[in-house]
């Protein structure tokens, strides 16, 4: 599992608290995708399971370390929704709860890791809450959630909140440059489109993803001048949520450009396109477009069995009406 330099400080802080006997039994980590929260939890778990820790480090040689490295430790539990499902039900939580109240098979710590605590159904959350309130000895919980506000307030109140914040842009750009040969403008753009999460930025810079974004930007530049419906095949894609996010980011950038805040745009490598969008529509039309595209994306993400092609077609036709006066005026 990859380790990231920005995890060193939170790792040291958390393990030092555990070492001093002041560690909280339940840690709620709020982190963006690509921040490495799973690697952080894995590192802390290895230290907790280590039978001969060396200060803040696990020894890497004891039986506990060997089991962790082989991903076969019987006292380390990962709770997440089954493949193809979006929610984590009560049965899985009850099964783990039952095991927690037995003696640890290796005689040490017992750890429960929820990579996405937002998957918990209300019944599952309540079942977990009972164990969080009265945890068995030497039992530790790690919950990750992008938006902790989506969790039950009672769950949040039993956990120590730990936000995993992105490093500053300079540090992140330096890290990206060490991982991949990339133009500075592209690296900065990828970071800003990923809300500053370096791991997510690196994934975006992979050839397939970056080419998809470039293709959308090129098509948009042509479509706003000729036929906006040319965007339909590019947006009506399995990766539609990401592609709509790119389009929305360009509209936000166009508003920034109109306000003279060009240095703060996300799409640093597409300034000509941002300037073109800013010149095509007044601020009121850009704002309305931004709201409509955001609403369209939300509907695609939240409504089951929605007709994606029909919804995108309707949105593009409505958008063309906002663009038409600017093209013909």
Automatic annotation (TrEMBL):
Whom does it interact with, and what assembly results? DNA polymerase III contains a core (composed of alpha, epsilon and theta chains) that associates with a tau subunit. This core dimerizes to form the POLIII' complex. PolIII' associates with the gamma complex (composed of gamma, delta, delta', psi and chi chains) and with the beta chain to form the complete DNA polymerase III complex.
- What is this enzyme's class at the first EC digit? transferase
* GO molecular function terms attached to this record: 3'-5' exonuclease activity; DNA binding; DNA-directed DNA polymerase activity
Question: Is Transferase among this UniProt entry's keywords?
Answer: yes
Any idea what this protein is called?
DNA polymerase III subunit delta'
Entry GO terms, CC: DNA polymerase III complex
List the EC numbers from the record: 2.7.7.7
Name of a matching Pfam family:
DNA_pol3_delta2
Domain DNA polymerase III subunit delta' AAA+ ATPase lid: start-end pairs: 167-205
Q: What is the lineage of its organism?
A: Bacteria, Pseudomonadati, Pseudomonadota, Gammaproteobacteria, Enterobacterales
* Biological-process GO terms, alphabetical: DNA-templated DNA replication
Provide the gene name from the record: holB
User: What job does this protein perform?
Assistant: DNA polymerase III is a complex, multichain enzyme responsible for most of the replicative synthesis in bacteria. This DNA polymerase also exhibits 3' to 5' exonuclease activity.
């Amino acid at each position: 599992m990859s380790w990231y330099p920005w995890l060193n400080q939170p790792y040291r802080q958390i393990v030092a608290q555990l070492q001093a006997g002041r560690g909280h039994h339940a840690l709620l980590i709020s982190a963006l995708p690509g921040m490495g929260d799973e690697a952080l939890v894995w590192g802390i778990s290895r230290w907790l399971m280590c039978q001969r820790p060396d200060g803040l480090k696990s020894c890497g040689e004891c039986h506990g370390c060997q089991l962790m490295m082989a991903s076969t430790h019987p006292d380390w539990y990962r709770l997440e929704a089954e493949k193809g499902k979006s929610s984590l039900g009560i049965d899985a939580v009850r099964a783990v709860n039952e095991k927690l109240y037995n003696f640890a098979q290796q005689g040490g710590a017992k750890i429960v890791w929820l990579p996405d605590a937002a998957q918990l159904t209300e019944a599952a959350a309540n079942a977990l809450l009972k164990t969080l309130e009265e945890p068995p000895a030497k039992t530790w919980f790690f919950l990750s959630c992008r938006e902790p506000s989506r969790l039950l307030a009672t769950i949040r109140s039993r956990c120590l909140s730990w936000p995993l914040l992105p490093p500053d842009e300079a540090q992140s750009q330096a890290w990206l440059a060490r991982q991949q040969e990339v133009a500075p403008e592209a690296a900065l753009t990828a970071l800003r489109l990923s809300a500053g999460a370096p791991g997510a930025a690196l994934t975006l810079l992979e050839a397939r993803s970056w080419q998809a974004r470039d293709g959308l930007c090129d098509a948009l530049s042509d479509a706003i001048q000729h036929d906006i419906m040319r965007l339909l095949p590019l947006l009506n894609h399995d990766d539609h949520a990401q592609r709509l996010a790119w389009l929305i980011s360009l509209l936000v950038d166009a508003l920034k450009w109109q306000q003279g805040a060009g240095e703060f745009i996300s799409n640093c490598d597409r300034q000509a396109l941002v300037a073109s969008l800013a010149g095509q529509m007044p601020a009121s039309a850009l704002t309305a477009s931004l709201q409509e595209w955001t609403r369209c994306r939300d509907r695609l993400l939240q409504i089951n069995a929605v007709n994606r092609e029909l919804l995108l077609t309707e949105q593009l036709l409505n958008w063309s009406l906002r663009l038409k006066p600017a093209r013909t005026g």
